[in-house]
What we know:
The chain is α/β, with parallel strands linked by helices. The chain has eight helices and eleven strands. Strands 3-2-1-4-5-11-10 form a seven-stranded mixed sheet, with helices on both faces.
Amino acid sequence: MNTTLSDIVSRQPATEPWVEGEKIPWREPEFSRRMLAEHLTQRHDAASRRFDTIDSQVDWIHRELLSGKPSKILDLGCGPGLYISRLARLGHECVGIDISPASIAYANAQADERDLQCSYLLQDMRTADYGSGYGLAMLIFGEFNVFRPSDARAILVKAHAALSPGGVLLLEPHTFDAVREMGEAGAHWYSSDGGLFSDEPYLCLRESFWHPDHAATTERYYVVDAKTGAVSRYASSMQAYTDAEYRALLSECGFGDIRFHSSMGGDVNAHETGLMVVTSRKRKYPALT
Ligand SMILES: C[S@@+](CC[C@H](N)C(=O)[O-])C[C@H]1O[C@@H](n2cnc3c(N)ncnc32)[C@H](O)[C@@H]1O
């Protein structure tokens, strides 16, 4: 059933996270084509950071986490491969997994053109086979929180299994306060001549909710086509974790040497203050499930 403007007027508050929708539609071909442009633009850092920031973060990963030595790297939610294409140029063998068809097509084309040691899988990281023998697994730019807690835990367990003993997990989740503030942001809207949600002019009405009992948010997006008034509706949720919860979760999934960093390389960008960096190492005994 299509959403109408009347449905927006008569809407009810969101009561539970993840009930109204899993995520924005990363895997839809047309959405992913428009999202790829957002990843690659050098005008903002909303979908991926700008290239000069990525260059310095890649340098930090290479020097601080991998001691400058060649390794095998897994990038979960790699997008267009902006990190691992650079890491491959530094001598690492890289695997990227993402559900966005346009991003994976772009990443594959770059790898072919530049003859990079990168392979990409167009798959859902919840179900994908990660392979094994990695020195580093990474899941960055806040995507961790968008998974239901059970999926997030299962991803950590699979990453643990894919790492070699002593291998590093690089996680860049949101801080607890950032997720809560997003949930408490209320309703706001913008207009676009054509952008992420459509090539045609549209209004985007956003509304967020904080679920204190779950420490989670729901964000709704009503996208109203400016010519026809047709409404598309999307929703996504995010789980908030305290630092102690991140620490406990990583420990339960078999990681030790857990360290918190304010950013990758100390170069804090004001847009990103809601993110934190957590590194840990695979302990030598099996993860709990
Ligand atoms: C915020 S973007 C970050 C992209 C990249 N890590 C970067 O920083 O440039 C999140 C990425 O996660 C991907 N993603 C979201 N859910 C996913 C899933 N279930 N499996 C694989 N990839 C997923 C999206 O397609 C998107 O490319």
